[in-house]
Design brief:
With 277 residues, the chain is mostly beta strands. The protein is built from two helices and 21 strands. Strands 3, 5, 6, 8, 9, 10, 12, 13, 15, 18 and 21 form an eleven-stranded mixed β-sheet that branches. Strands 11, 14, 16, 17, 19 and 20 form a six-stranded antiparallel β-sheet that branches. Strands 1, 2, 4 and 7 form a four-stranded antiparallel β-sheet that branches.
């Protein structure tokens, strides 16, 4: 008998159908845990954080200011960008790029050269596994030392900027009262932008014999210090915090024999004021 031909095409089709059914049973459905694990492997790990701090919020021009913080979890040599903004609303610029230590800590030493308010923040750039990080902004006020007598005067009477000699020592940046009147003053407006003053008051060597000068320092019209000095006498320097005060005034009265009389030359000697301008 002739043999029956094999129906190979039907067998192959049946095998393909079986494989498709099995594949459908074992393949993970969209949204399953297995599929989520694959997606998570492609997503950046956002569990990283960074902190920032400054070692002081007020600093004098030319003094060191330290910006420091930490990136966690710690990875040695992580790149950190220290950024600075010189005025509120201004452009942020990268001041320096530093690397973290093995414990995740970083530090940058700045030496401000211009007075005024400035802001610091740090940025950690994004990587293949981590998102970009940015800290909040920290405000620092930078002060410059000025001789008070060299600053513009708001109002004055019988008092001029110049040099004075007291007990043989010359003070070239002083405010000096006139010798031919009994009272005078000078006032500066610092617009709440100064931190403090260091001052000394006295009476010049060329004051009239037997005369004395009563000297006062006032802030916003309030008396803070009053002293009386004979010719050639000067007090030790004092420091006075200004805070939010707007006006500094030096006032004086010349006296002789206990009564007001011309002759004494009152001096506000080489007073230094620290201001954010």
């Amino acid at each position: 008998m002739p043999s029956r031909p094999h129906r190979r095409g039907g067998g192959v089709a049946l095998l393909v159908l079986v494989l498709l059914v099995v594949g459908a049973l074992v393949a993970p459905a969209p949204g399953s845990a297995s599929d989520a694990a694959v997606r998570a492997g492609d997503r950046r790990d956002a569990r990283r954080s960074v902190t920032v701090a400054v070692d002081r919020t007020q600093v004098e021009v030319g003094r060191v200011l330290v910006v420091r913080g930490r990136v966690t979890p710690a990875v040695a040599r992580t790149l950190v960008k220290v950024q600075k903004q010189l005025r509120t609303g201004g452009r942020w610029v990268t001041e320096a790029q530093v690397r973290t230590r093995a414990d995740g800590r970083y530090a940058y030493r700045d030496r401000p050269s211009t007075p005024g308010r400035r802001h610091y923040r740090v940025v950690v750039p994004a990587t293949a596994r981590h998102e970009r990080l940015r800290t909040r902004a920290l405000t620092v006020t930078v002060y410059r030392a000025h001789f008070l007598a060299d600053l513009p005067v708001q109002v004055q009477e019988s008092t001029t900027a110049g040099s004075a000699t007291i007990d043989g020592t010359t003070y070239p940046h002083s405010s000096v009262g006139a010798a031919d009147v009994t009272t005078g003053f000078v006032q500066w407006r610092v617009a709440r932008r100064c931190r403090g003053i260091r001052f000394a008051m006295g009476a010049a060597d060329d004051s009239a014999a037997g005369s004395s000068a009563r000297t006062d320092v006032l802030l916003d019209g309030l008396y803070y210090f009053r002293e009386v000095h004979a010719a050639g006498d000067v007090a030790a320097p004092r420091y006075l915090r200004i805070g939010t005060k707007e006006r500094i005034r030096f006032a004086w009265t010349s006296q002789a024999g206990g009564v007001d009389a011309a002759g004494a030359r009152a001096v506000l000697a080489d007073t230094v004021v620290w201001c954010a301008f």
